[in-house]
Amino acid sequence: MTTWIVLAVCFLLVLMALASIFSRSLASAIILLSTLSLFTALLFVLVAAPDVAITEAAIGSALTTVVFVLALYRTRNAPAADGKSAKNAADESSASVRPDSEVTNA
């Protein structure tokens, strides 16, 4: 009976890993990876490795998820690298100073 449960959890782990790889949203990929880690901790409990399960639940599920969510939050609030950034604005201003005879189309 335990063998079938372990196989079912392993199958769910593979499905969640594939779903997180092919996920279109970063937030849903983070959630899938967090649940993947929780199911991995469950698998470690089923195979009688409780110390590894506690470590996986604490670090893999809790700490890694918090780091991923913070990184996602900080990158969504970061300025985009478009024509409005300071670096691109400096490049455009230096190009406008040159005489028309020196500017060539590449």
Structure notes:
The chain has one domain. By secondary structure, the chain is an all-alpha fold. The model has no long low-confidence stretch (mean pLDDT 82). It has four helices and no strands.
Order of helices and strands: HHHH
The poorly predicted ranges are: none
Q: Give the class from helix and strand content and strand pairing.
A: mainly alpha
| First-residue to last-residue Cα separation | 69 Å
Q: Give the mean pLDDT.
A: 82
Q: How many structural domains does the protein architecture include? A: 1
Q: Which tags fit this structure?
A:
elongated; mainly alpha; 0% strand
Write the layout of secondary structure elements.
Layout: H1 2-21, H2 26-46, H3 50-76, H4 86-97
Describe the structure concisely.
This protein has 106 residues and is mostly helical. The chain has helices at 2-21, 26-46, 50-76, 86-97. It starts with a helix and ends in a 9-residue tail after the last helix.
